[in-house]
Design goal:
233 residues, alpha+beta
Length: 233
């Protein structure tokens, strides 16, 4: 389990009203297989064909690619960087073999709207987790009770998909998704179907369930408001 390396003032969960209500009343974390997100091609908010990738290589960062088929009569062949339409992706089964739960993290004051309108694609409702530390403590306890052998959580890092070469893994996504400000909880062993982790009622550390369409009218996390609330910036 990793510690949160950066201050998180609150966490937000977006979704359909019935699911957000279940999150608040029962502490239900509906954790989808990471591999499932690669298949959601028509879902611009959730779908990502790069999910489960272990490393990516920009062709321009490599002089020549040598492929060894290992098959009699085919042998090895080479390819120049110009032969590729995009980065080369390498995905190991152990990278995608996990279940994840995704939230929106507020890590700093924001001038203007706190949440990009692109996040409205996630559903019609949202709830605030007002005490992230206590929430994560309950996640850890529930995971132990459920016999989960591995739990990790942290903020997602975003990279330039046209320039970055290196490790990607479970906690890095392309910068086109940076508007999601994602905080991700990962558990193993992975399941081909969603896992349900039950924390118990979260009503003492969350807001009421609110309409997502009104989020930027309801929430104000400007520097002025943060200072007035006594937050250390």
């Amino acid at each position: 389990m990793s510690e949160v390396e950066q201050t998180i003032y609150c966490l937000l969960k977006f979704g359909e009203k019935q699911h957000i209500q279940a999150f608040r009343s029962d502490g239900l974390l509906y954790m989808k297989p990471l591999a499932e997100f690669t298949k959601l091609e028509s879902d611009m908010a959730r779908g990502d064909c790069f999910e489960g990738t272990t490393r990516i290589f920009q062709p321009k960062h490599i002089g020549e690619f040598i492929f060894d088929t290992g098959k009699l009569g085919l042998g090895k062949f080479s390819a120049k960087p110009s032969d590729f339409a995009g980065p080369v992706r390498i995905g190991l089964h152990k990278t995608e073999s996990c279940n994840v739960y995704c939230m929106f993290a507020v890590t700093r004051p924001v001038h203007g709207e706190l949440v990009s309108v692109q996040n409205l694609a996630f559903g019609d409702s949202f709830v605030l987790v007002l005490n992230p530390t206590e929430f994560l403590r309950r996640v850890v306890d529930a995971a132990k009770d459920a016999g989960i052998s591995y739990l990790e959580y942290r903020l997602v890092e975003y990279y330039d998909a046209e320039e970055y070469s290196g490790e990607t893994g479970r906690f890095r996504k392309r910068s086109m998704f940076a508007y999601q400000n994602e905080f991700r909880i990962v558990v193993e062993p992975g399941s081909d179907t969603p896992r349900k982790l039950i924390l118990g009622s979260l009503s003492d550390i969350t807001s009421e369930v609110l309409p997502l369409s009104d989020i930027n009218q309801i929430l104000d996390f400007s520097p002025r408001s943060a200072r007035e609330a006594g937050l250390s910036l």
